[in-house]
Specification:
The longest helix is centred in the middle third of the chain and has 18 residues, at 107-124. This protein has helices at residues 34-42, 97-100, 107-124, 134-137, 151-156, 174-188, 202-213, 224-234, and strands at residues 3-5, 11-15, 23-28, 52-54, 60-62, 68-70, 77-78, 81-82, 88-93, 131-133. The protein has eight helices and ten strands. A hairpin with a 5-residue loop joins strand 4 (52-54) and strand 5.
């Protein structure tokens, strides 16, 4: 696996130990082109960066060394972790994103991503459940990598959690179903909501979950299938 260095000045001065790297966070660039994306990730003015970028042809570029904290996750939460930059490696996939014409990720990209994930998982002993999308950890702000990202394919290679229909399911009424759904999400690691209290942000949380686990039906509504998936993931 070839990795080409093209280092960015955008990272924190503190060096971290290998044991501090616990998550891989996957993003899309969300810009018009690869050139524009790299320019931004290297420009001190924007204060954003990532560790790796994979272009449409599958070329892997390293912008920040693993031991350095890149600025890719921003304000974020997962389980008991906040501001995941400190504990993660960020991988950007070149894709115009929802704003500029969201594309299917290329097969070359995903093949390279799988190789890179395998290398990083082994090197840092990363738990398979800790491969997440930006929208999982920052659902109120972010949509990436979005519903076209093949999470099921990644999970088949042991990167990321997926569900099996392996437990009995009780169908509660709609009100109870909403409560149980959010309790399931809380158990998975999602944050920015209160399971017992509804909020205008709930729709964003539901959409984030659906982009990851129910990509053909990103409605922001808890239908039976969405609830069912949350149950299978946590039981």
């Amino acid at each position: 696996m070839k990795i080409t260095p093209n280092l960015s000045p955008n990272f924190s001065s503190k060096i971290r130990s290998k044991s501090n790297i616990k998550f891989i966070i996957i993003h899309y660039t969300g810009m018009q082109s690869e050139i524009e994306s790299i320019k931004r990730l290297k420009n001190p003015k924007f204060k954003v960066s990532c560790h790796y970028l994979i272009n449409r042809k599958g070329k892997i570029t390293q912008l920040v060394k693993d031991k350095n904290i890149a600025w890719h996750a921003g304000k974020s939460k997962w389980k008991n972790f906040t501001n995941l930059n400190k504990k993660s490696l960020g991988i950007e996939l070149v894709n115009k994103g929802h704003e500029f014409g969201y594309q299917k990720f290329s097969n070359h990209q995903i093949k390279s991503l799988l190789k890179l994930c395998k290398y990083l998982k082994n090197k840092y002993k990363i738990n398979k459940e800790n491969f997440l999308g930006h929208s999982d950890i920052a659902p109120l702000r972010k949509n990436d990598p979005g519903e076209k990202f093949p999470w099921k394919r990644l999970s088949a290679s042991n990167f990321g959690k997926w569900y099996n229909k392996n437990s009995k399911i009780i169908w509660p009424n709609k009100k109870v179903r909403t409560l149980l759904f959010f309790k399931n999400l809380q158990k998975l690691g999602y944050r920015y909501f209160n399971p017992y209290k509804r909020s205008k942000n709930d729709k964003k949380i539901i959409k984030s979950f659906q982009q990851h686990y129910r990509p053909k039906n990103v409605t922001g509504k808890i239908d039976e299938k969405t609830y069912e998936i949350s149950h299978f993931l946590t039981h």
